[in-house]
């Protein structure tokens, strides 16, 4: 039986590249301008992208020059000979509006534009509007739709189970998108030059599904494209290799300067020197080349001010190598010499500083570019700064930069908007992210499945599963198919809620759609099962993972190790550590820490010690979490002296205990009746400015009461209040027990009264019993056992 995907044809619809009429906002219709230079470059970019994907069975295109040229470039890149040109895919005939400027056409014949929607499909467009034929032989929208869709339906029948590329025009592509919209509702869209729209057409039902809408993620600049991958026209690869070789031997080769001069033209221009600098792999070699070019020994030496291009090339090389100290020195020397870095150079510096997290430097460089060139850096560089501002939660600055980018020609792309929206969603501010999308593309328009995924993930992160599912429904209604990212966000959220039943339903849905879970989705499911104390079931999922061909990562194994250790299956957990190592995954602290803790709790100290040594041998220094697990395991096993030795060792390594480790040590010492040592730990905490919490004080108070040392217990209780730590119910009950134990009933009643006021306990009672009360005191419960009971039970049990 054929798979479901075999019954569909994948239609990749591309809008043609830019023409001079596009740039001048002239109505083209079925007029036949050719691609301009930018349009040809756009076609090359989209062709390279398509060439990296599955090879198409055929390419169909409008026969108008702008589409045909784009199709020919794509066909060549994809190595497809089956290219067909047809009138059926032409642009809408615009009647006598063709050849007019858009603004002039609207002003000249406003009546003609009633219901007209060429670049934006509007809601509420009734049947009569869609049948409105444009004067001068123009087409109606229904005529355009019927022409294109009927032709492509025939194409689909000839290519079931295959991929086909179609090159067309803006209005025609909008009609294809509209064909996938819900009934009586049209979605507002924009179709930039060389944008991609991917449709799936059922060979059985003929249903169209808009799978993805991919506007150009990075719009091309209006200037000539920078082609870093192309050979340098001034410096050939052979010369570049020779230059690097000569410069590398300059310390040992006395004739290196003559060899260098023989490789470069004379006189040496700034552009040629810049090309030579750009060809070098190492900034130190570039610095040596520039130094040679300006030395008195070089008869054609170039003065510093005459080489802004070469120094800009050096700055870009330094930025890529993150040699920021040398960047500062070079900028200063250029400034003294009166040379200015190029716009591209300053943009590259903005991006490099942003990538390194140096926000101050990045913004300074951006401001310098503004002052020097009156504009922002190119969009790819701006996006790096925008991303850093969002990561550092500098929302006002990020929004200011984003708005400024929108105000410039090609100053913001889809990625710019996505960076800001994703940042807001990570903070749970999904509604603000949605408003940002609508501000750019209009109400009700989410232009790409990536934006849907970001918004759904935002709702899931804040636990609003209901809104996430509603957005999923809207996404599917508009013809966008959920991706692995979509399902990953939903399953991760359900996993945190422990809703295993719904996770199973989503798994079935994914399989029906032909999607195989990735490692992140499997990890979410395994984590959910382990948190539900179902590590055995998680191992079943791991087997399914192996069977599906999905390789687990170290997170998979760490999750299983932790889950099994929590359930007491330490030996099984160690087996998975060995399996991770066998698979050449690199275990980390999260792999070893649960095992060390588990073996300590079982009293298998040698096994725990061996794992600690193994972890350190792999280059992972134990941190406070690892030491804390080791100490807790030792204390639980009754090895308090050994736990104190570990505490000393961690301090020697400059890893200092936190409040949790101190709590565990004090609890262990109190259980062993080593109260002076427990007091010393408290003093050490205070000296190191680690503030004890109520649990530490409660443990000490209970320990002294159990040892019938009411005086020290009382001192600690009063000291606790002096330090501003409000006594909790456990501390108060321990003191009440102590007072009762020593017959100090008035103090016990006063403590009880204060506890009522401080803890607002409405129902709590202590019974004062006859003279034989002392024999009935229950002194067997620890603070942790007491704290799990209701206040009234805690207090009455003291005298039962």
Strands ordered across the widest β-sheet: 3-2-4-1-5-6
CATH topology of the domain at 4-214: Rossmann fold
Radius of gyration: 36 Å
Number of strands: 6
Q: Write the CATH architecture name of the domain at 4-214.
A: 3-Layer(aba) Sandwich
Number of helices: 39
Mean pLDDT: 82
Which range does the strand content fall in? under 5%
PPR repeats: 448-482, 483-517, 518-552, 553-587, 588-622, 623-657, 658-692, 693-727, 728-758
GO molecular function, one term: catalytic activity
Site (Transition state stabilizer): 169
Family: Belongs to the PPR family. P subfamily.
Key descriptive features of the protein:
single chain; 800 residues; mainly alpha; Rossmann fold; Serine Threonine Protein Phosphatase 5, Tetratricopeptide repeat; six-stranded mixed sheet; 6 strands; disordered C terminus; TPR-like_helical_dom_sf; PG/BPGM_mutase_AS; His_Pase_superF_clade-1
């Amino acid at each position: 039986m054929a798979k479901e995907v075999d019954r569909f044809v994948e239609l990749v619809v591309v809008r043609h590249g830019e023409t001079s009429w596009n740039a001048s906002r002239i109505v083209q219709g079925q007029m036949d301008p050719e691609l301009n230079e930018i349009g040809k470059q756009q076609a090359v970019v989209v062709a390279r992208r398509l060439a990296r994907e599955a090879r198409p069975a055929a390419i169909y295109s409008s026969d108008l020059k702008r589409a045909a040229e784009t199709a020919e470039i794509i066909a060549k890149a994809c190595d497809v000979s089956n290219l067909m040109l047809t009138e059926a895919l032409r642009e809408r005939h615009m009647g006598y509006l063709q050849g007019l400027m858009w603004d002039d056409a609207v002003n000249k014949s406003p009546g003609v534009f009633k219901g007209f929607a060429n670049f934006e499909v509007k809601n509420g467009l009734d049947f009569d509007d869609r049948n409105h034929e444009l004067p001068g032989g123009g087409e109606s929208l229904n005529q355009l739709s019927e022409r294109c869709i009927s032709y492509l339906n025939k194409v689909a029948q000839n290519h079931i189970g295959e991929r086909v590329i179609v090159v067309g025009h803006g209005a025609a592509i909008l009609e294809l998108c509209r064909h996938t919209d819900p009934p009586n509702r049209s979605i507002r869209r924009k179709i930039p030059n060389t944008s991609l729209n991917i449709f799936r057409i059922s060979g059985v039902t003929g249903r169209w599904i808009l799978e993805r809408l991919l506007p150009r993620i990075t719009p091309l600049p209006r200037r000539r494209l920078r082609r870093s991958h192309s050979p340098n026209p001034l410096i050939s690869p052979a010369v570049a290799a020779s230059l690097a070789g000569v410069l590398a031997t300059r310390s040992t080769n006395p004739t290196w300067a003559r060899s260098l001069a023989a490789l470069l033209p004379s006189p040496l221009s700034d552009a040629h020197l810049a090309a030579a600098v750009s060809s070098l792999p190492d900034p130190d070699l570039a610095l040596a080349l520039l130094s040679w070019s300006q030395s008195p020994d070089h008869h054609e030496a170039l003065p510093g001010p005459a080489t802004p291009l070469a120094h800009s090339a050096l700055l870009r090389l330094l930025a890529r190598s993150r040699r920021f100290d040398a960047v500062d020195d070079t900028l200063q020397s250029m400034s003294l010499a009166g040379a200015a870095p190029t716009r591209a150079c300053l943009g590259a510096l903005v991006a490099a500083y942003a990538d390194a997290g140096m926000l101050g430097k990045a913004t300074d460089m951006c401001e310098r570019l503004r002052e020097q060139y009156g504009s922002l850096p190119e969009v790819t560089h701006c996006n790096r700064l925008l991303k850093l501002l969002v990561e550092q939660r500098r929302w006002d600055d990020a929004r200011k930069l984003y708005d400024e980018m929108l105000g410039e020609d090609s100053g913001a792309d889809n990625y710019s908007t996505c960076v800001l929206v994703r940042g807001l969603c990570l903070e749970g501010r999904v509604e603000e992210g949605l408003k940002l999308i609508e501000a750019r593309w209009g109400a009700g328009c989410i232009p790409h499945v990536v934006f849907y995924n970001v918004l759904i993930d935002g709702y899931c992160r804040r636990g609003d599963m209901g809104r996430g599912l509603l957005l999923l429904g809207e996404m599917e209604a508009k013809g966008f198919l959920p991706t692995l990212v979509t399902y990953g966000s939903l399953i991760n959220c359900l996993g945190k809620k422990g809703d295993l039943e719904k996770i199973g339903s989503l798994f079935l849905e994914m399989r029906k759609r032909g999607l195989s879970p990735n490692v992140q989705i499997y990890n979410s499911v395994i984590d959910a099962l382990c948190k539900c104390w179902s590590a055995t079931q998680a191992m079943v999922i791991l087997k399914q993972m192996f069977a599906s061909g999905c390789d687990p990562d170290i997170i998979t194994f760490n999750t299983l190790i932790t889950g099994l250790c929590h359930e007491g299956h330490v030996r099984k957990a160690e087996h998975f550590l060995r399996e991770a190592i066998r698979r050449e995954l690199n275990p980390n602290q999260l792999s070893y820490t649960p095992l060390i803790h588990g073996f300590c709790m079982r009293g298998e100290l040698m096994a725990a010690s061996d794992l600690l040594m193994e972890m350190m041998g792999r280059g992972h220094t134990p941190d406070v979490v690892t030491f804390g697990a080791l100490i807790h395991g030792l204390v639980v096993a009754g090895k308090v002296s050994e736990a104190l030795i570990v505490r000393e060792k961690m301090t020697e390594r400059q890893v200092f205990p936190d409040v949790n480790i101190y709590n565990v040590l004090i609890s262990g010492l109190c259980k062993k009746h080593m109260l002076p040592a427990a007091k010393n730990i408290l003093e050490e905490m205070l000296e190191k400015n680690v503030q004890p919490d109520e649990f530490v004080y409660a443990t000490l108070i209970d320990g002294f009461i159990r040892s019938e040392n009411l005086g020290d217990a009382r001192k600690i209780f009063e000291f606790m209040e002096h330090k501003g730590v409000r006594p909790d119910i456990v501390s108060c009950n321990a003191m009440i027990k102590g007072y009762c134990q020593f017959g100090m009933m008035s103090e016990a009643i006063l403590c009880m009264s204060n506890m009522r006021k401080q803890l607002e306990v409405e129902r709590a009672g202590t019974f004062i019993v006859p003279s034989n009360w002392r024999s009935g005191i229950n002194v067997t419960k620890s603070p942790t056992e007491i704290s799990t009971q209701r206040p009234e039970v805690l207090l009455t049990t003291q005298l039962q």
